[in-house]
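In this section we walk through a basic example: taking a raw amino acid sequence and producing a predicted 3D structure, encoded as discrete structure tokens. The instruction is simple. Fold the sequence below.
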Amino acid sequence: MEEKKESLISDAVDYTGSIADRTTTGGWVSATLILGIEACERFSTMGIIINLVTYLIGTMHLSSATSANIVTTSGGSSFLLCLVGGYVADSFLGRYWTIVISAAIHALGSGILTISTILPQLRPPPCNPALSDKCEKANSLQMGVLYTAIYLNAVGIGGIKSTVSGFGTDQFDQKDKKEKSQMAHFFNRFYFLISAGTLLAVTVLVYIEDDVGRSWGYGICSSAMVVAIFAFLSGTRKYRYKKCVGSPVVQVLRVLAAAMKKRKLEFPSSVGLLYEDASQESRICHTDRFWYVLSLWKLACCFL
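The resulting token sequence is shown next.
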């Protein structure tokens, strides 16, 4: 019975909602599946983005400036959407469901892009590059399908990138010395697989897209995400889950709002009169090392 209690992790649950047992959940088995979906995401994303400008110019008959603008805007949007993905994961869905839904959206976007390279109705007719001024540009339907595919990918990337590393660390208990050391190795493998996925994309996939066909290249990207989703789902019973505690961004904004609301209150003469929550180990204890912050705050209040 005592050994059973020691194997329980108080701040994590299993797929049934019960307290997680370190002997049956988490560890490298579940972490490997999480690493796999991140590697496939990077492989698929880079396989599409790295060669997308030439596709927009050569196939969709867009100008170089327009093509570059589309690619950079979608790439920037994917990083900004990481903020949204992190907020949704921390406040509503949790990391597991955010990854599953985002990966499905990513696969859907890649699939739509693959279909657009196969069906002639979804791209303008081919023409001689030497006569580019006479090439028929993509119509509104074709551009609409293209934008849908690209920005579905951006939404999927934002959801995956903001949660996958955090969900990976959830599989290791920082209070256990052995698992804490394994967490460092997890990040080594995490960034190695990101680099490996990128390397395969910019070499093998680019070759396939240029010499075999874009439909094959984009189809491989879509298939990789589908396989990664099923592999990730296969570990549902093995994962450790953390309960949603709310977005840290919201908590910071609440602190700032409370500070502004109470900015004119008088400070107590003794720090012992301040509220201190000693029951939580994560709280920071009182210190006099940052005494100058109080002076700066009083100075700032003079201008408010």
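Looking at the output, two observations stand out. Residues 177-212 form the longest helix (36 residues). The beta strands are 8-13, 19-21. In the next section we compare this with other chains.
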